[in-house]
Design goal:
By secondary structure, the protein is mainly alpha-helical. It has 4 helices and no strands.
Length: 159
């Protein structure tokens, strides 16, 4: 886990990159009927704007309340590191899925011009994204990013 604001920013940049890249590919594949070279291309083309949006949401909107909720309801400062990681990860995924599902719905409405479908698309995207994002975060992205982060930046090297 990051130990200070600078570490937290670097960690957030890395984690958002991995999560948004995977979830972009996943969502495009869902809407195109499966993974293909075309779905990967479309996912990659939409990635930069989604990444910037997710990074801003994570850093300025979601992170503070999610960490507060995690340490109020699910873990305390003396909990084991794994309990803290799981609590914060779960509390981050829920609002990020809600916000980024709205982003995906808005993106679809811009492309198709069917604005009346926004509430339906948004609400149907939330469970589809949640069932992918939470396991991916807990089992793949979290462990990989934490390992890369700590190998690149051992504890105490970023002050």
């Amino acid at each position: 886990m990051p130990q200070n604001k600078k570490e937290s920013l670097i960690y957030t940049v890395l984690m958002c990159f991995v999560m948004v890249l995977w979830m972009s590919m996943y969502n495009v594949a869902l809407h195109m009927g499966g993974f293909s070279a075309e779905s990967v291309r479309e996912g990659w083309m939409g990635f930069p704007l989604a990444y910037i949006c997710a990074l801003c949401l994570d850093w300025f909107v979601v992170s503070g309340p999610a960490k507060a909720a995690a340490f109020r309801f699910f873990a305390d400062r003396d909990s084991s590191p794994s309990r803290k990681v799981i609590a914060v990860s779960c509390c981050m995924v829920v609002p990020m899925v809600i916000f980024m599902s709205l982003y995906g719905g808005l993106e679809m409405c811009i492309v198709t011009g069917q604005w009346r479908l926004l509430p339906l698309v948004w609400l149907t995207n939330i469970p589809k994204n949640f069932v992918m994002a939470l396991p991916f975060q807990l089992l793949v992205a979290g462990p990989v990013v934490r390992t890369i982060f700590r190998r690149a930046f051992p504890v105490g090297t970023i002050v």
